[in-house]
Prior knowledge:
With 386 residues, chain A is α/β, with parallel strands linked by helices.
Amino acid sequence: xxxxxxxxxxxxxxxxxxxxxxxxxxxxxxxxxxxxxxxxxxxxxxxxxxxxxxxxxxxxxxxxxxxxxxxxxxxxxxxxxxxxxxxxxxxxxxxxxxxxxxxxxxxxxxxxxxxxxxxxxxxxxxxxxxxxxxxxxxxxxxxxxxxxxxxxxxxxxxxxxxxxxxxxxxxxxxxxxxxxxxxxxxxxxxxxxxxxxxxxxxxxxxxxxxxxxxxxxxxxxxxxxxxxxxxxxxxxxxxxxxxxxxxxxxxxxxxxxxxxxxxxxxxxxxxxxxxxxxxxxxxxxxxxxxxxxxxxxxxxxxxxxxxxxxxxxxxxxxxxxxxxxxxxxxxxxxxxxxxxxxxxxxxxxxxxxxxxxxxxxxxxxxxxxxxxxxxxxxxxxxxxxx
Amino acid sequence: xxxxxxxxxxxxxxxxxxxxxxxxxxxxxxxxxxxxxxxxxxxxxxxxxxxxxxxxxxxxxxxxxxxxxxxxxxxxxxxxxxxxxxxxxxxxxxxxxxxxxxxxxxxxxxxxxxxxxxxxxxxxxxxxxxxxxxxxxxxxxxxxxxxxxxxxxxxxxxxxxxxxxxxxxxxxxxxxxxxxxxxxxxxxxxxxxxxxxxxxxxxxxxxxxxxxxxxxxxxxxxxxxxxxxxxxxxxxxxxxxxxxxxxxxxxxxxxxxxxxxxxxxxxxxxxxxxxxxxxxxxxxxxxxxxxxxxxx
Lengths: 386, 296
């Protein structure tokens, strides 16, 4: 009997040792310790998948550039920031997994580049965990603890598109909207607010749709003089291309939303010439900014609006962390309280490139411009707006 | 009426691609009674082959098409020898072949994912210059017209080969009973490999059209159309090439009507309701015959 007990004890001890070893190997033994003294912040970016090319990658680059440029200022303030990056893979499950990994490393702040469904999945967790979330979601986020912030103001630049179309004399305006993505529905509603008579034709598509022949037949039947494409950038490119191939859309003005990116041109090529869309920022002004030059030098490509947003959010993060460090506490609650003021601080006004204010209730206020594609697909200003 | 006609033509164009994809599926199912799901990955690789040849090497689509058909056909033959042949003769061979094919699907999709570096790629627009055409009140593009004509020719030639040639008789014999076919001197492996080749070639051609017409190629491309192909098989009848054509067209037209008259959001619902209705009321599909597997 005694020997049996010993065997059991040995087995239990062996099992406990194995579990401990596994926990140590998988990093499940609780938050990792940080001996460097650096403030760890999380970047939950769509580095692969549908949203990578248009949103995740340029955002990551802009963010990285801002933090790189802020190093002398951080050194001066005695603050060090370490960015922990997780790939959200343009999908909700990966975003939640990525967020949980960042939470396990005790980050006080998580920056998430885009995609409402991803932001909406992560926001309740962030509020529960008291981690400040700065998200590029286009739609409202759960914000019970006040920890969710959006840096995208879709309505201000988008509403101006509707009034612009009306001013140009367009009367029969149609809409193609990705109805399965709340951001695009929100954008469509914001555009419609600027239209005196609303949309004359409304076509809902799914974000996964690739064949638009039936939708184009409907648009043709409705005899429109302008069509607003509130869909993913690649899908907008595909629609433009299929409209060109189908014919009878030569005299229809095509307008996009703030979600349009260079990917639209990559898909549609020269068929996208003349296509106009609002952006929070576009390169190609008469005086290229220092940001524009440095981004192009570092990454070998002209920045997009999401690159600019990444840069702006990067500087805002730096300003908030410096302020938190000065106040003596760098945690989720401190950053939540400091972020709105940081977004309009002198540091951000001096180094940032956008007029972007994050409010205490988690919303963003920004102006915008109208952009179009130049030769070779470069995004350029079509005229000031918003 | 013009609008109805236009949407019907749109549906026929879409349905013809579904039909070609489903026909490849159906050929294998009729020949060996297995659900070769890795066919979806062969479809994906067909699109990748087309993209490599047109966008990287600068070939035109029509020149690349036969090469894509051969490459996709060979890939499917490889799938037959690696995934199907070894397990088919075991007890419960059909289920084992299905599971093996499922494994092949996962491996091939992962390979495609790595090959494309997780990205969505697009065909070079110069690979085929499409132009709009007006036929009475109907608008169609030259690409769509060629797609429909080529699919009809492929399906017609396949049906003729199966019904009127010695090879077709051998395929039908293997489909009826492969052991009996072997006793009668039919080389079952050769015939099955031939069927897999034809099936893969059809997937390659269908994938090339999808890639150029809808302008999206990613690792999950074939899997996206898997359920649609199943729908075409349910409607048309398992194993009948002619049935697959009609099934694909019915699914394509139903899908287009749903988008045209209701909304794109109802499209999948309409297709699945149609599929369920067929399963409940006419499980043998539109083309009823006495012996399902002798219809190939």
